[in-house]
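Q: Make up one entry.
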Amino acid sequence: MALLNIDSALRRVKQQLKKIKPGQCIEVLSYKRNRGVSVTLLEDGRLHVRERGYEHNEWEVEQAGLSRLLKSIMKREFPRSRKLRVYRLDSPEQTERQKKIL
């Protein structure tokens, strides 16, 4: 997927979450692909959020609490970024794949 402005990335993640099936994942990466956040839809409708970058954390949240959590993560992980990459993945294991780092 193309680079997105950081202001529209959160909106795009919420739109993509409506289209994915349980077990699929949305991944948000910095321009250099060295920091990121992945959101996986679980079978019960909850979301598993994983942060990789400056800090390494994992959460399970309801869909209603996702916006607030993602905003705080994005401020911490992408403080000076203006462009982000948003990918839709078929499984959470694909987040561990080797990425081309710029």
Helices lie at 6-19, 66-77.
